Amino acid sequence: MKIPDVVLQEASEALEMLEGTIVYLGKIGDGRDVYLLEQPIDAETGFPFVYLYDGQSAMEITGFEALDIINEVEKRSTMGTGVPTVLYNC
Known about the structure:
Elements: H1 5-18, E1 21-27, E2 33-38, E3 50-53, E4 58-61, H2 64-77
Antiparallel strand pairs: 1-2, 2-3, 3-4
């Protein structure tokens, strides 16, 4: 899956700083796509960075809200929506 340019642009600072990659997680209840900044396994960074994409713009989310979004994607994936299960140690 191609990551939208607007998501990459929103994530550019974090990508440069943390040297990670962007991966698609799935959709949340309102239909927005969720992307995660996947960091090297040995990175010690605290909260994850997630990006919400509505088809036109992207927004960076971190902190406890990012964990809530990842949990929502996980719950939706276990309800048979076809989204792969993603587990992260945060």
